[in-house]
């Protein structure tokens, strides 16, 4: 069956960027922060997960915190670059991590058996997937009943400063704008996508991280070491003009620099969580089944409105 999902990202290009980041020495401050936050969120869940899958996280940060938590048995890494230096063997963690397996797969085509996993996690990877609804459906099917999905991905306000500065510079210098920064997903859409994929008790929230750099060029170097540079299918294949880059840096500094001259860069992190349906889970109350009026609970008088809106 041919997918009707639009192709936004050049997946081969994205893999090449990630491999280059490994060779350069990856910048890990953001994924390390997300991994620690994921560990804190998982700590609130009072149960053990015998089998866990980490999808596409660009370093082993998530797998390290899972191993150290003592709440996870077998940890599996699923990534197109499995076998590279980013997937080095986990330490024994005093027996808390029973094993680690690495499988080389694309996040868009996960060869997973139905109801085979207790936990699926992902950090800063799924926003580069073309068919995110399809990936979420595959993840939900792979979870056992009452299995948990917990993920973080870049949201729509990520790198908004860089996007604006490039757009303004290209409009001035080149009389046209080319896509330079990815169109990341919007928080308002993610809850609906979780429900569409069949998750129970879906929850979404957002965390905003502001990083500061000496210059826009320093930011772009850091993005390269994150493996997060432009992999859009519609990206311009022409070399970036020096005049455009210079003007972009000027605009960035004019609009988004602090008093000390350092520039700001926003990273919006959208958090997703959902459970594979199970009979033991809480169910929403059916409409009209309440046994007590809201007015009574609030200690106030109920005022009825007429159907035509005049009363």
- Give the CATH superfamily of the domain at 11-156 and 184-210 and 267-277: Vaccinia Virus protein VP39
The first-to-last residue Cα distance is: 56 Å
CATH architecture of the domain at 11-156 and 184-210 and 267-277: 3-Layer(aba) Sandwich
Strands, total number: 7
Residues in helix, %: 25-40%
The assembly state of the depicted protein chains is single chain
Report a brief summary of the structure.
This protein has about 300 residues and is an alpha/beta fold.
Structure description:
With 311 residues, the protein is of the alpha/beta class. The chain has a domain at 11-156 and 184-210 and 267-277: Rossmann fold (3-Layer(aba) Sandwich). Helices cover 33% and strands 21% of the residues. It contains nine helices and seven strands. It has helices at residues 11-24, 29-43, 61-69, 132-142, 160-173, 187-196, 216-226, 242-256, 294-298; strands spanning 49-55, 72-78, 99-103, 117-123, 143-154, 200-213, 263-275. It has a seven-stranded mixed beta sheet, with helices on both faces. β4, α4 (132-142) and β5 form a beta-alpha-beta unit. α2 packs parallel to α3 and α5 (160-173) packs across α8. The longest helix is centred in the first third of the chain and has 15 residues, at 29-43.
Write the layout of secondary structure elements.
Elements: H1 11-24, H2 29-43, E1 49-55, H3 61-69, E2 72-78, E3 99-103, E4 117-123, H4 132-142, E5 143-154, H5 160-173, H6 187-196, E6 200-213, H7 216-226, H8 242-256, E7 263-275, H9 294-298
Parallel strand pairs: 1-2, 1-4, 2-3, 4-5
Antiparallel strand pairs: 5-7, 6-7
Helix pairs in contact: 2-3, 5-8
């Amino acid at each position: 069956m041919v997918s009707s999902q639009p192709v936004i990202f050049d997946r081969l290009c994205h893999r090449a960027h990630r491999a280059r980041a490994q060779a350069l020495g990856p910048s890990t401050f953001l994924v390390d922060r997300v991994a620690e936050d994921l560990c804190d969120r998982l700590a609130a869940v009072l149960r053990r997960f015998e089998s866990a899958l980490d999808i596409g996280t660009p370093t082993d940060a998530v797998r390290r915190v899972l191993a150290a938590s003592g709440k996870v048995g077998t940890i599996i890494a699923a990534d197109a670059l499995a076998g590279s230096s980013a997937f080095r063997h986990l330490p024994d963690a005093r027996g808390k991590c029973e094993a680690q397996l690495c499988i080389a797969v694309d996040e868009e085509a996960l060869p997973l058996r139905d109801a085979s996993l207790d936990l699926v996690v992902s950090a800063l990877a799924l926003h580069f997937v073309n068919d995110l609804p399809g990936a979420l459906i595959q993840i939900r099917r792979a979870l056992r009943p009452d299995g948990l999905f917990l993920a973080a991905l870049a949201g729509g306000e990520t790198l908004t400063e860089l996007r604006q500065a490039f757009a303004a510079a290209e409009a001035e210098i080149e009389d046209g704008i080319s896509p330079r920064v990815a169109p990341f997903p919007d928080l308002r859409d993610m809850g609906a996508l979780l429900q569409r994929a069949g998750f129970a008790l879906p929850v979404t929230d957002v965390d905003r991280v502001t990083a500061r750099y000496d210059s826009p060029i320093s930011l772009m170097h850091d993005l390269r070491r994150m493996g997060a540079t432009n992999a859009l299918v519609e990206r311009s294949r022409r070399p970036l003009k020096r005049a455009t880059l210079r003007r972009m840096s000027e605009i960035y500094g004019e609009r988004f620099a602090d008093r000390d001259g350092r520039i700001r860069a926003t990273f919006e992190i959208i958090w997703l969580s959902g459970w594979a349906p199970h009979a033991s889970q809480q169910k929403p109350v059916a409409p009209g089944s309440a046994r007590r009026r809201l007015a009574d609970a609030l200690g106030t008088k109920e005022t009825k409105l007429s159907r035509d809106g005049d009363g």
